[in-house]
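Suppose you are handed a protein chain with no further information: no name, no annotation, nothing but its sequence. What can you learn? This example shows the usual starting point.
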Amino acid sequence: MQFRPVYPRQFKTQKSRFFMLLFSSFFILKSYAGVNYAEGLVPSIAIDIATRTIVETHVEDDCKYYNPNGKLYLKVGTIDANNNINWQQPENQYEVGGHPKVASLGEGRFVEVHEDQYQDKNTGDYQIWVTYGTVSNNTFHKDSYYGALGIRGQKPSVAYLGNDKVIVVYSRNDNGHPWQSLYYTIYQLNNGHIKPIDAATNVQYETSGTTPSITMLGKTIIETHIGDPAPYTNSLFSKVGTFDDSSNTISWNPSNFYTSVGFNSNHSIVKIGDDAIAETHYGESNTIFELDDDIWDIWSAIGTLSSDGKSINWANYQKFDSGTGFSYNPNKYIPYFYGGTALASFGSQLLEAHTQVQDLGKRTQTVHMYIDTGSITQDSGGNYNINWGLNSSKNLRSNQQKGRASILPW
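A reasonable first move is to predict its three-dimensional structure. Written in structure tokens, the prediction is:
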């Protein structure tokens, strides 16, 4: 099974049709990759397998000013019987904030989490907001929206625990140390309303770390995060916990280092089997570094749960694309982080989304978001592997210089 994204109408120019016809047979065999589907920052994707529904969230494309938060947009897509991805247009603004993440609860239900736009000047934290909604008739309906003044942090992530409970993980800086710690809050859904469980609110699970990502293998929680403080800010760690549904508590095992990454790199994990996850991250070396954009290699890896269920064994690292990881404001020359990689799975297929800044030789920048697709296979020994499609966006810089940044495929 292969995804075949349907190109938005605005890209169906005479020249783009020529390129699509020229490469169509090759792409069908290899699967599409690096397909531009929107403009924006820090994408997140979730798929409801039963209803074949995709919900994607991102921050507005606002590169003219130093503004890590902005308008939040949501896109709804469907996967048809031929595995075409059909994005519903137009996308909708649903809130203002930063770092949105989304997860599927099944049955057309989704939960989204983000920072608000008001940063605490002392801690750097934001208020964390959670949105619960349902998709019907290709439209997302926001049913419940919750934010508590006491639930503050940065760069949240979300996963479904089952039994109408979701977990939100985030970093926060309220312990008086020059680094961030990791916390979680468990939320309960009740008649379409979502609220935190008092006894499971702002629970610290790691004394240092930032930018967590989370997924579930049954009742086993898999979490990955970046180390903090330096020199661990270029290191990724994985952590395994077991959720007790009756007491709403989690028994955590120690964190383990598994790879080096780019500075403050966003990363993503998703379940691909009963005992396995896929992971993507920005590598520790960049392909192109200039004052106005910084393009980093994107890597994937496979993690399998250890036999004792206490840690993750990592393997099959591979570079499959490139994306914007660390950029500069073109007017003020202030460094800030644009990049992000997001994962979702659908049967034996993976979707990965990431950002790329394109300046087209001007002082202003345009951020495009791309989707790569990969197929998940297992060998005779039960080992998982990801076969990524053709890397269509590897020639980003050369095509920018030719003024063809909006023509797809490359």
